[in-house]
Amino acid sequence: MKKINLFCIPFAGGSAVVYSKWKKNTDSFIQIHEVELPGRGRRMNEPLIDNMKAMVEDIFYSIKNNLTEPYALFGHSMGGLLTYELCHKIQQEGYPAPVHVFVSGRKAPQLKARKKVIHNLSNEEFISEIIKYNGTDKMIFENKELAEIFLPILRADFKLIETYEFFPPLQLLNSNISVFHGIDDKAVNFDELSLWSQVTKKEIEIQNFPGGHFFINEYTEQVVGKVNETLGSLINENTLELPVV
């Protein structure tokens, strides 16, 4: 049976371990590759990156040797934005487009960032804003040692998001896009999701899940089930030829 490499990009503050538990639920034809970003997890000793261009370059060079085989991309929240920009980097470098793209918990990239900038707030104010997302255990911030590790990572990631500038691309993406959404996610609304249709030549599908912004952690089996179904249809239809850029 043919296989599909699935590169999974974490959300702000997240590491590759976020996607490790997916492996027990993915179908056998999917090969999960958890993308580790600098400054966390197994790359803890590397400098953090706080700007989009450098982060996309880093991800691209870490996966480029696997881009000549059928592959898909998945990114949640910040990871969704990185996924979008990574697709354009892949196009620019002349590699085939992914057979499918999954963006999760992220509004369309051409929409302006939320007005409130938090990456430069005091620690107390910054932590207060982060907790509102319900994705970070408060105990981390109550532990001095953990907070000293985790706060710089979150600040760098939020700076990357909040300083991101969208530039209309020369080419639209050449992949179908699945847009995953938690129905109780107050950070993103349906209209913002539907505008992903403006950045690809192909089709988008919006898939709702129970839960808030971090529904991928709460409802992992349902999310992975939809990934299996979507990529499985490509296997069944024998449509795994890599799209051109």
Explained architecture:
The protein has 245 residues and is α/β, with parallel strands linked by helices. 35% of the residues lie in helices and 14% in strands. The protein has eight helices and six strands; from the N terminus they run E-E-H-E-H-E-H-H-H-E-H-E-H-H. The protein has a six-stranded parallel sheet. Strand 5, helix 6 and strand 6 (204-209) form a beta-alpha-beta unit. Helix 1 packs across helix 2. The longest helix has 19 residues, at 144-162. It is globular. The mean pLDDT is 91.
SSE order and pairing:
Layout: E1 4-9, E2 30-34, H1 52-63, E3 71-76, H2 78-92, E4 100-104, H3 123-131, H4 138-142, H5 144-162, E5 177-182, H6 190-194, E6 204-209, H7 215-218, H8 220-236
Parallel strand pairs: 1-2, 1-3, 3-4, 4-5, 5-6
Helix pairs in contact: 1-2
Biggest beta sheet summary = 6 strands, parallel
**What is the structural class?**
alpha/beta
Lateral arrangement of strands in the main beta sheet: 2-1-3-4-5-6
Radius of gyration: 17 Å
Beta-strand share of residues: 5-15%
Instruction: Give a count of the beta strands, DSSP E runs of length 2 or more.
Output: 6
**In oligomeric terms, what are we looking at?**
single chain
SSE string, helices as H and strands as E: EEHEHEHHHEHEHH
List segments where confidence is low: pLDDT < 50 over at least 5 consecutive residues.
none
Spatial separation of the terminal alpha carbons: 25 Å
Q: Give the overall form.
A: globular
Mean pLDDT: 91
User: So how many helices?
Assistant: 8
Estimated helix fraction: 25-40%
